[in-house]
Amino acid sequence: MARKAxxxxxxxxxxxxxAEFLLKKGYEVHGIKRRASSFNTQRVDHIFQDPHEVQPxxxxxxxxxxxxxxxxxxxxxxxxxxxxxxxxxxxxAVSFEAPEYTADVDGLGALRLLEAIRFxxxxxxxxxxxxxxxxxxxxxxxxxxTERTPFHPRSPYAAAxxxxxxxxxxxxxxxxxxxxxxxxxxxxxxxxxETFVTRKITRGLANIAQGVGSCLYLGNLDALRDWxxxxxxxxxxxxxLQCDEPDDYVIATGEQHSVRQFLAWTAEELGITLxxxxxxxxxxxxxxxxxxxxxxxxxxxxxxxxxxPKYFRPAEVASLLGDxxxxxxxxxxxxxxGLREMIAEMVxxxxxxxxxxALLKHHGLxxxxxxGGR
Length: 374
Ligand code: NDP
Ligand code: GDR
Hints:
With about 375 residues, the chain is α/β, with parallel strands linked by helices. Helix content is about 35%, strand content about 15%.
């Protein structure tokens, strides 16, 4: 019998990589997707299996983390060996605008799943993974951050994730559930949502390079992050549930860079050398030189980025840097993809899209490409 996994957030960045990973391992994979007025399964369409054509091992169920009866019913039907709770309103800036919804989905959503496991008597059957976050550290008390670093959340998102973290620990201690927290630092990929800063930059600059996008507007360029590749991080999510004992693990690269550096390296990938002028809200990035043929629409002297204070957050997390020593020591995990390599992969993917837009525009068929919002 194939092992069964249930993934919330299967249509998101991590959910799609994890589903691929588990299918390759021979799992039967069940994912929860939200009802939307248009298609929202682009990230998993390539692994969808038409039940009319093959004996499928990948199933999608309509559901929502705010809906207890729906989650309990899916859990009862699937009786999964492993649950990966990746579903979330995952945007930190948006959580300031929708704090109650974020608390409901990101905080209580975890509780609803844990309670469903308990209510159905699956404690001895089902292992649980909670997608915890380096945002828990917030106002950091020590660098680098480890599993023992105290938390100080700085957003409604992080406060909701703090509840989910502790309720996961609580169900492990109180009911003996095999429940783990992965405290994951930022991880990105070509499948990253378009409004997170890395993808906003790779997509925005690729569009400018091909003449289908205008100036990029960003917020805090001084923010420091520890960026890894999502593909490497989902492997660790699975590894945690294969251990003899449940535990919590930091997953990070141990390297830290600024948003400004990420922008400069992305430009370099396109043959553009950037010069940063001004400071604070007046800072701009100018194309100092352009080489090669990847950015035909950019001329030296063009302003490609301006700071817009609208993207500053009410409370910022200035600096995050993780120490994944425990994951390395106990589970043999190390990230395999370096940041420059990941930027190259993201730029290549966004450049392909930008070129398609440019071609359509050339034939008078193009729609304007919206710049990434938040
Ligand atoms: P994404 O934003 O790409 O994916 C989030 C997923 O959750 C999507 O499938 C989304 O559905 C789904 N979702 C949102 N609201 C609900 C809801 N009410 N009910 C059910 N599903 C819902 O996030 P990532 O893949 O990047 O992250 C996965 C998890 O890991 C999240 O919990 C995130 O908070 C956490 N995390 C992420 C990190 C990162 O750097 N990527 C780092 C640390 C933690 P839809 O597609 O319909 O929007
Ligand atoms: P983060 O990721 O908040 O760390 O949360 P994000 O990419 O949104 O921001 C990283 C840093 O970049 C700064 N920044 C901008 N951010 C966005 N989104 N848009 C901008 O224009 C911009 N300009 C500068 C931000 O202020 C911030 O400091 C991500 C999410 O995936 C969470 O779900 C996850 O828990 C954490 O990573 C770890």
